[in-house]
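We emphasize that the prediction below concerns an isolated chain of 236 residues; any contacts that depend on oligomerization or on bound cofactors are therefore not represented. The input was used exactly as deposited, without trimming of termini.
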Amino acid sequence: MVSRGEIGVLLISEDQLERAGLHAVLGRDPGIVIVGDVDSPGEAQRVASLCKPDVILCSERMVSRETLVLAERLAAQSNDARPVHLIVLVPSPDDQAISLLRIGRCTLLGRGVSPTDLIAAIRVTAAGYMPIRTDVARSLAAASVSLKGASQETLEQVRSLTKRERRVFELMIQGLSNPEIATGLGVAESTVKSHVQNILGKLDLRDRVQAVIFAYEAGIVRRSAALSGRLGMSVA
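Result of the prediction step, given as a token string:
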């Protein structure tokens, strides 16, 4: 039973030993309650309706079709009073993982994430935020994404950004948080938040994760620069 202020987590892993390990790691945090564990995303759909988790944590060797279906169903329930968030642990992002992020309401982490970072990600995700770290952004750049190049419509969207919004957009792509961007630009965090909302609106994006995908697939971010460790952005 999840009490007020606690985060209910449903675990998914086909590996029974891994599920036991996640139980041990998450059980250390008094604010997290494991409400169930299953061996497949398909089974999770049934169990979730009964145990009402806040977060579903799924660990896979590669993103399966079942996980994509689960993500789509959770996204369709995004207007519920108590929406369920999905965190997926994978070895490295691939095309299927990118499809998962496009659906939205999903957080993607490496299976080698530390216990401390995993707990932090669960807390942040349960609060309604989709964390996107610099190392994840670099992994997205390295994934086998089909870069289609910037269309005329995309170019027009980018040109609609002001000079300051373009700079904030560049820092978003690098995985910086609003406070970090504010510090770097020497402005108030509320100003950055306003810029971010304007950017997402002008580019017709739902969140920061979609902003990263938009930048790579449109060819706005130079993949070679990202792979060298610096995420650059060139705007036509």
